Amino acid sequence: MSESILVRIARGDRAAVRDCLDRHGGLVWSIARRLCPDPADAEDAVQEVFIDLWSAAPRYDPDVAAESTFVAMIARRRLIDRRRRASRRPDHSPLPETLAAPPHEGPDAVERRDEADRAARALGGLDEGQRLVLTLSIYHGLTYDEIARRTGLPPGTVKTHARRGLIRLRSRLAAPHPEPPERA
Question: Among 43, 106, 124, 149, which one is most buried in terms of CB atoms within 10 A?
Fold first, then answer.
């Protein structure tokens, strides 16, 4: 029986690197394509997997597992880690500055506009975290998880900001309307 490719890599045999790519490239690529829907991302992931394999080669023990099993395990772990990191990355896509309001016709339009202005002022009076979470939820329809991904905040913090912000909004909106100042 010939010596394992990973054992040869661990010893520093440069020819073993090419042999490893030839023998296990298809296996790693198939795992990457299954776990990375984007082909360009899969290619990057395959390169990372092989870099990990070079550094993990000294840990390979042919008495414990087959070489292909060891390679598949390293590939799967790397790809799962990569997916987890990608899901934690905040989305930095820009939000629109203003939202187009649907036209409100009829006798209640002025009253609705006044209430909307009052609600917007109350929202503007919240602290930054609460205002951001509620704006993304109310105006953009994002879920707590989507807000967490977009802002980089933990989901629990997003829920806390939403709850506390809504409590503050409710109390501000329940307060009587302040009278406009008299003009001289």
Answer: 149
